[in-house]
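Changelog-adjacent note: as of this version, every example in the card shows the full chain rather than a window. The one below runs 475 residues end to end.
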Amino acid sequence: MLISVSSEKLSKLNAFTTKTLVSANINVDAIRSSLEAKQTTEERKFRSNLKNGYGVASPLHKLRLFDESNSENDVRVTLYRDSASWCPYCQKVWMTLEQKRIPYRIEKVNMRCYGDKPASFLRLQPSGNIPVAIIDGVTYNQSNDIMYALEEKFPDNNPLVPKDPDVRMHAQSLLRLERQIFSAWMYWLTSRDTSDGRMRQNFIATLIEVEDALTSTSGGFFLGNQVSIVDMMFAPFLERMCASLLYFKGFQIRVGNGETTNFPGINRWFDAMEELEAYQLTKSDYYTHCWDLPPQLGGCVPEEGSKPFQDSINGVNGSWDLPLSPDNNGLEPDWSFAGDECAAKREAVERVSANLEAIASFASRGAGKSGRSYGAPLADPNAISNDSIHPFVEAALMIVMNKLLAGTEAESVASDKAMSELVSAWKIEGGNEVVDKVAISLAYLRQRVGVPRDMKLPAARQLRAHLNWAIAKCS
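Full-length structure tokens:
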């Protein structure tokens, strides 16, 4: 049963939990009704759009038709990408499909460090590498090949490869620079620097070349005012450089709006990219990157002075507590394109309420048993949930959602009161064990909120912080 509390006491606890929630009018139907009343028209259509392949792009889409001008008969592409939305090579193909508005289907496959790959995929791709795309019945199993095939097969869909020979030649030189900055980043990130800082200096010298390439253009992108395949190639890795070098090396590239920087061209380029729905869809946060990169790369090497940045990104120094500081205290720019704080809270509630029972069961793994380990520390696909604690975790999550939706101080206080009453009762009947296991379960979930897989960064920040609020109530 994974808990020492007797069945009789658990039954009493369940009854009191239900009574407290009823008294506070907290239930999933009331939460969904309150959410719907606050949502925009587009937000209310989110689930139906997912099913039909329409609307604003989401990692939850399995079919992308974009709008009603396309039908499933128009789908000529199937993309096999990673289930956790971690893979940079998948990201650039995914962005290309979205930017070119090519209808496509999605099949999700685990990365090796996250779980096993299905036999059906291994028959298609014996190496197991992703991404893979099937275009007009032909299989392509390398990301760059897929991108150029999409350009060839869909030449009229927002072309990304320049036609002018001189511009095309310039694009090729920039793509060589992309490989150079990638190599310099990898070398420094996965190694301990020499005493003379040679790896750091080599990376900075190459980064300055990227900066110069961007400041020499009249627009925000590498080739000027129009996004191109060069931007699609650079984006996944520049994004990961900003996260990983701050976390492991204490080196900051991306800054908040109005902050001074040695790399204004790169920051201006990120601003331009964040105007693209294709990039907004696939963009991750620093926390997700800094936990998903080490298992993919075989490890990243932290350097002296990086721990304060790690603490802020991991939320262990109060950066995940309410009230949240803008731009995570200047380390990671807020996503202004994602809407205001209320929109972030609505998104968090929508994602949790749409799948509450499964999410509570997932969280209850924290108080259950671990399964077979994989390379990624936060991957635990074969863990066993603690069913005894599940009802209490679900109740805590409903109160968290209620607090997220609170529009007045009185509504927020009501959530505080309900959580305090539950914790008090759990302690009286079940001792510290029940409360501790609920807190452990909420922390397990908090650590595994993935961006963009589960939600955008502003929503993830709100959910993580409100889970922290509930955890603090338990203590």
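Structural remarks: The chain has a mean pLDDT of 95.
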